[in-house]
Amino acid sequence: MCRLILSLLTLFLGILSSNSWPASYVGSESCKKCHPKIYQGWRSTLHPYMLRKAREGSLVSNWKDTTLKFGKKEIRLKKIGSEYWVEIERLGKKKSYRVDYVFGGNWKQLYLTVFPNGEIHILPISWLVEDRKWEINKYWPGTVYQYQCMGCHVTGLKIVRDAKGKIIETRFKELGVGCEACHGPGEEHIKAPAEKKSETIVNPARIPYTRRAAMVCGACHNRGETLDGLYRYPVGFLPGTSFDFNFVFKPVIYPDGSSKVNYQQYRDWLESGHYRAGVMCWDCHEVHSKGRANRFQTKLPGNKLCRSCHEVERKGVHGLHSVNNCIGCHMPLVGRRGINRDVHSHRFRVIYPAWTLKIGSFEKQPNSCNACHYHKKDSPERLQKLLDYAKEGFSF
Predict the structure, then answer these.
(1) Mean pLDDT of all residues belonging to the chain
(2) Angle at 149 between CA 336 and CA 214, to 5 degrees
(3) Which spans in the chain are helix H?
(4) Taking the model in full, what pTM does it have?
(5) Which residues are bridge partners to 120 per DSSP?
């Protein structure tokens, strides 16, 4: 009964928030006037490009007039003038859909089409950047993008629904993750006198509550759903507030608790020693620039970042590798974004080969060691014995 009441309340609040879009979003261009360096740095990050209109330059795929074959399924790609089209057979009939938006592009890119009824749908093909090839995805045709993903790919989203819950209008202030996605609506901040500026905008680093501060990142770097099961992101969330009571985690994990897929960094972090110590996302990652390691926007590349805080002696298990590969062991590549194992764990825990031995296979339960050592001679049994040997204080 309590859950039913909470679900109804969340549904009401979701409808209310989606129908009362604050006119106080001003867009990142307005921030540029006073913060030009921060603005230019932000433009170099991935955030502004999470969702873009489909046009020359925004597609990273090898798009040409061709027919893609996936078993018995065929999908035809077309380019007509400056527009991109996908021809799909559905219910025995072939139909063409225009690509209106693209999202992603660093690891993989997906393609969106707007239906006549206003719903936005993810087309059934994805481009894998590392593999330079197409794959078929599971989203078509049932996934409605406004409910599944859109709240994390635009800034200032408003979804207007009628009494029956049907989408009748979708608005947003800005494509991509803009300044106000992390700092909140900026109209009052712009209008405020100098002495009131800091009071009229959210700086996540100054939020006194650790968990709530990290929710600014966790609202999108997380998997779950609202209590009514409709949205896959904390609809109506504003920086500085909490989604603890209207959003349920739905993680996709391995038996040891490590994430199988991307967008679970917030949940990983909550289970880590970093959370308990108060080490925040932005202590490691740059938020307004590429950083020293561009792909992940970290402040220092690789193990240098870890060793700027952690000092370890090269003995025991830390003596196994002459380079002290912190990330390889404590942040193993076990999750999937575009291809298998291209997502680092953010639990900051070593996954021992013993876990693979317990579950029965590396595919069902990967481990830190075999994520790098994959030759036949490097079996989980052998690597676990080496670790046990090193723990006893023996050197190699």
Answers:
(1) 90
(2) 75
(3) 2-18, 28-32, 36-43, 145-148, 179-183, 187-191, 210-218, 265-270, 273-277, 281-284, 303-307, 326-330, 353-359, 380-391
(4) 0.88
(5) 114
